[in-house]
Structures are given as C-alpha cells and as structure tokens.
Amino acid sequence: MSFISFGFLLFFPVVVFVYFLIPQRFRIYWLLAASYFFLMRANPKYLLLLAADTAVTWAGGWAVARAARKGGPAALRRKKAAAALSLTVAFGILFVFKYLNFFCGLFARALSFFGTSIAAAHFDLLLPIGISFYTFQSVTYVVDVYRGDVKPEKNFCKYALFVSFFPQLLSGPIEEARNMLPQFDEVHRFDYDRARHGLLLMLWGYFQKMVVADRLGTLVAAVYDSPDRHFGLDVLVATVFFAFQIYCDFGGYSNIALGAAEVMGFRLTRNFERPYFSKSIPEFWRRWHISLGRWFRDYLYIPLGGNRCSKPRHYFNLLVVFMVCGLWHGAALNFIIWGALHGLYQVVGLLLKPAKRRAERALGLREESLPVRFYRAFATFVLVDFAWIFFRAKTFHGALTLIRNLFRFDPAAFVNGSLLNLGLNAPELWAALAGIAAVLGIDLLGRNRDLRAALLSRGTACRWVVYLSAALVVLIFGTYGPLRGAGQFIYSQF
Predict the structure, then answer these.
(1) DSSP H helical ranges for 71-116
(2) For residue 43, which phi and psi values (nearest 5 degrees)?
(3) Digits of tens for pLDDT over the chain (494 positions)?
(4) Rounded to whole angstroms, how far apart are CA atoms 105 and 206?
(5) What residue ranges in 87-178 does DSSP mark as E strands?
C-alpha cells in the first residue's frame, strides 16, 4: 500500500478511529496488525522477511542482555557472539535480497581481468520495499542493547511494532529504540489541535509529491531514460528538476509519515531541514535525510574513528562512510560513485579550508554577509545537483553520457521550444516551476517560525480557505496514474 493510493485514504481513518476507540492495552496490537496489513497490500511475501528480521534481532537483543548480566570474560564472549550472530543474520537477509546479484556481477568482472570468463550468477529475487530502512532500524536496537543504551524489550509485539510501524516502514525516518519504544506505552487521547497539525503536514506532503515531484518526474524520465538522445539545455533542466523531484518526493513521504504519526500522538524524527539552503556539503548532510546521516555517524563513522584520528585516516573514514551510504541506496556502481563524490567534496573542502580562510580575509569577506551566503548556497547546490546525475541515471555509462552531453549546447534550444517535447506542455511546465517556487518559498519562510502554528492561530474562515485551496490544488494539479508520471516514492525502492 502506498500513501498516494486510494486504499490508504480509507485505511488511515479506520486505523485512527479504532486506535482511539479501543482500550490502551490493545492499541499496540491493533497498530501491529495494521502495519502488517499495510505491508501485505504491497506483497504478502514481504511479511516473511520482516518477521524474520524482527524475530532474529529481538532474540539477539535478549541474548546480549542475558550474557551481559552474568559478567566475566566468558559472558563477554557470549555477548559479542550473540550480537554478531543477530547482526550477521539481519545484514545477511539484506545482502541476499539487495546485493547478491550485484556482487556476483562484480566477481565475474574481476575474474575477467585475470583471463577467466564466466557468466555472472543471477538469482531471481524480489527486492522487498523498505528493507534497508527496517534493517537499519532493527540493527540499531541490537547495537544499543549491546552498548547498554537501552534495555531489551520484553514484549515481542511491541518490538515488532517498533520495526514495522506503518507511517515510517517503507521510507523512514530510521528511528532509534530509545525514541520510539517508550512512545508505545504512552496514553494517547484524541487531540483536535494535534490532529489538525498532523493533517496539515500530510496535506503539504501530498502537495510536494503529487503536484511537484511527480510532475517534475515526467520531464526527468524523458531525458534520463534516453541519455543518448538529449543534449545541453534538456540535460541541464532535467538535472535541476531531479534535484527538486527527489527532495519533494522524499520530503513529501516524510511529511506524510510525520503527520500521520502525529495524528495518533507519535513523534517521529524530522528528516529534512531546508537542505537546499545549506552553505556547505557537511551542512547539507546535517539537513538532508537526517535520520540516515545520524545512523552512519553513530554506527559507522564514529566506530571507524571519526575525526579523532590522523588527517589521512579522517579523510579515509569520510570516503568509506559515504561510499557505503551510496551502496545503501542502491546495488549499482553509479550509487557508489554518488556517495564517493559527497565524500570527496568533504575531503577537498577540508584540504582547501585554510586557503579559503586566507582568501576571505584578504578580500575582506564576511561569512554572514548576504553575497557570501548566497554564493556558498549556490555552489553547494551545484555540487549536490551534479552528484544527483549518478544517482538518477540508470547506469554508470548513462551518467557519463549525460555529463558529456550536458556541455553540448545548441543555442537554438533556448528559443525553439524543445523543452515542450519532453512530456510537459507549456502550462504543465509553468505549473512545475510554480511548484518549485512554492517549495522554496515555504522553506524560506519557515526558517525562523512555525508556519503550521501561524496558520492554525488564524481565524476559522482564513484557515478553511487555506485548507480547501490546498486540497483543490492537489486534486486539480496533482499527477495521477503511471501515464502521467505518478509513481511510487523514490526512496521506497531502497
């Protein structure tokens, strides 16, 4: 089931109504059943993998905690073994279904360098949607129990709900047990103001996805699905459009998820904080996909040594983390290159930092001046957008083709209307640009104030004019059906 399906518009009100109707002791079981039904509507086979991951990590957490209570060297060895076994199984499931074919192909290509030619083994395995998200979430639980940061959860069903909670099951945010598990014990009563906040956030998410992201996706797909046929302005516009497509697509999902959870009284981690206003690549990653960045920081970057080591090792840690981050997004070379570029950006930035400071002092530039902030934000966006080429392209070769064709400009393209042959007519193109402007405008206005709270403080007439206008915009200008570019959320495939 998808957030943008008609089924969800029926499913969600029923879940909320029953949740507040039944006694507190039954609520986690109702949400667990609803979450499993939500995933089953996508594919019933997905439930088996989710259940296996849940059972293994729950049992692993208990085995780790039981060994820790005994103390002594033997207990420590059992503790490490229990953690290693559960993590191996969890990551093993992820590896088999997401990466096995990729690494079989790499192995075959590696052998070819030594003169041995073999056909790469290929296994017909489905990729369960959301597997990367719930695997990382369950792994955090085992690691946190091992570290002593959280106690093992006694109630298996409550833990299963933590792993499968339907608002964030398919595309995050990746939550920590210390944040979510206590919330399932809270007594949530229906709150009208909270429900309004949540529904308004969901409406904004639907605008981002259906009005902006899916409309932009029509033009992006026309170019990126046929990289050999497009040049110059076509590639440039499609690349810029993809930057906003993926932001509005993933941001839209996250806002719908946060809003749906908020209606029921749950607080999920905010995943975005105006990332395209970032003035550096490190700042971008503090604002983009915040929960994933936190995961890699806490469970990979810091264990590798972080920045508390020699400079060469620090640079190595950055490159490794971002290459793994790229691989997390997809089992393909272009995703690894995308991640490596972000790591390389940061390494180069650190190397050039002293020279940059000297140049700014020599030129009398102030960091907080508007021209400097604008330049840095623009430069950061250009770097991020260039890397998106590898993320969106279907193959590594396709990405190189698009980069080469990007610099083959035909001046006539600016006046001959060729952009209107890429799936969007003039009104649709103007609607796409207006959508981008609306997203940037809301991001800009929301820097120093809570726009939802400001709207909800207005009079009844004003609020309902905004509600109905926004709903009509989504209904009228939303993109519907696969022929119109509407599709599943981009991050659900990871």
Answers:
(1) 73-94, 100-112
(2) -170, 120
(3) 788 888 999 999 999 999 999 999 999 999 999 999 999 887 888 899 999 999 999 999 999 988 877 777 887 888 899 999 999 999 999 999 999 888 888 878 777 777 777 777 777 777 888 899 999 999 999 999 999 999 999 999 999 999 999 999 988 899 999 999 999 999 999 999 899 999 999 999 999 999 999 999 999 999 999 999 989 899 999 999 999 999 999 999 999 999 999 999 999 999 989 999 999 999 999 999 999 999 999 999 999 998 889 999 999 999 999 999 999 998 899 999 999 999 999 999 999 988 888 887 787 777 778 888 888 999 999 999 999 999 999 999 999 999 999 998 877 777 777 788 888 888 899 999 999 999 999 998 888 888 888 888 888 888 888 888 888 888 888 876 554 545 678 887 77
(4) 39
(5) none
* Alpha-carbon span 221 to 38, nearest angstrom: 28
E strand map for 358-481? none
Nearest Cα neighbor of 83 from 56, 61, 112 is 61
254 near 173, Cβ under 8 Å?
Answer: yes
Tokens at residue 223, please? 């170019």
Task: Write out the two tokens for 44.
Answer: 């019933």
| DSSP codes, 208-256 | IIIIIIHHHHHHHHHHHT-GGG--THHHHHHHHHHHHHHHHHHHHHHHH
Give the predicted TM-score (pTM) of the model.
0.92
CA dist 341 and 379 (Å) reads: 15
Cα separation of 80 and 63, whole Å?
A: 10
| Residues with a known catalytic role | 329
Conformational region of residue 430, where left means phi above 0, alpha means psi within -120 to 50, and beta covers everything else: alpha
SS3 for 412? helix
Residues 443 and 437: their CA atoms lie apart, in Å, by 10
Residues 6+ apart with CB under 8 A from 93: 49, 52, 53, 131, 135
Assigned token pair, 311: 């400079």
* Alpha-carbon span 273 to 284, nearest angstrom: 9
Tell me, rounded to whole angstroms, the distance of Cα 178 from its chain centroid.
Answer: 21
CB within 8 A of 128, min separation 6: which ones? 43, 45, 46, 49, 50, 97
CA distance 283 to 286: 5
Q: In Å, what is the CA distance from 419 to each residue of 45, 93, 282, 480?
A: 42, 44, 34, 22
Query: Nearest 5°: phi and psi at 71?
Result: 75, 170
Tokens in use for 226? 């046929």
Check: CB of residue 390 under 8 Å from CB of residue 338.
yes
Which helix (H) or strand (E) element contains residue 394?
Answer: none
Q: What are phi and psi of 235, to 5 degrees?
A: -65, -40
Whether residue 207 contacts residue 470, with contact meaning beta carbons closer than 8 Å, is answered with yes
Tokens of 18: 């029953």
Extract the tokens encoding 350: 């650190």
